[in-house]
Design a protein that fits this description.
- The protein is mainly beta.
- The chain contains no helices and 17 strands.
- It folds into two domains: about 10-115, Sandwich (Immunoglobulin-like); about 125-215, Immunoglobulins (Immunoglobulin-like, Sandwich).
- A six-stranded mixed β-sheet has the order 1-14-13-16-17-11, with no helix packed on it.
- The two termini are about 25 Å apart.
- This is Ig-like domain-containing protein.
- It comes from Saimiri boliviensis boliviensis (Bolivian squirrel monkey).
- Keywords: Disulfide bond, Immunoglobulin domain, Repeat, Signal.
Length: about 220
């Protein structure tokens, strides 16, 4: 079961003022989360809307279906959420505007905030070992006493990151274990990994994160 990569990386910048129209430009801003987009319940996270252009006003939206809820509009590109509640879990975007025009840039790509701590933490393990030769593959297992609809594997310390979902899971079926196959690995895979589980009715409200699993590439 190869993992399905769900990219939440927000890439692209506005190439010029004339391209930043209200209708949307092909190039976008970059939205990131500090210290991480995976946030414990009651914790703190800062969303940052970045661009090489000198926007003077920034807006950060929380999206739900086709609806956008404005969370922040102002001169600061940063928006801090504290304390984080289950209602803050979900998908965010941002856009920018120049002082001498009412036109806004295209929205950034989406950034998903996952809120952890709703349920007991799962366990995590690596097979055959967490010590992996470069170019080899490693299997990471996430196991829980609860039968979740989804499991997410993520790497700690990334303000923008991808999340691995077990492709073998089917909607409407509950699982106590997920299997993630990583590789061929490179030195970039080195780091601490955690996993958490969630139910389909609140996908981005996760269990407490597992203990960290340190993957070392030799």
């Amino acid at each position: 079961m190869a993992p399905k990569l769900i990219a939440f990386l927000c890439l692209g910048l506005c190439l010029g003022q004339k391209m930043c129209t209200q209708a949307g430009a092909p190039d976008k801003l970059s939205l990131s989360a500090r210290p991480s987009p995976v946030v414990p319940l009651g914790g703190r996270v800062t969303l940052s809307c970045d661009s090489h252009l000198r926007f003077v006003t920034f807006t950060i939206y929380k999206t739900s279906g086709t609806q956008d809820r404005e969370m922040h509009t102002g001169r600061s590109k940063d928006f801090t959420i504290s304390p984080v509640t289950p209602g803050h879990a979900g998908t965010y975007r941002c856009s920018g505007s120049f002082s001498h025009t009412s036109q806004w840039s295209a929205h950034s790509n989406s950034l998903t905030i996952v809120v952890t701590g709703a349920f007991r933490k799962p366990s995590i393990s690596a097979h055959p070992s967490a010590l992996v030769a470069a170019g080899a593959r490693v299997t990471v297992c996430c196991h829980s006493e609860l039968a979740f609809d989804d499991f997410i594997l993520y790497k700690e310390g990334h303000t923008q990151h991808s999340q691995e979902l077990d492709e073998g899971m089917e909607a409407g079926t509950h699982y106590v274990e997920a299997v993630f196959r990583l590789g061929p690995v490179t030195p970039a895979h080195t780091g601490a990994y955690r996993c958490c589980g969630s139910f389909s009715h609140s996908r981005y409200e996760c269990s407490a994160p597992s203990d960290p699993l340190e993957i070392v590439i030799t």
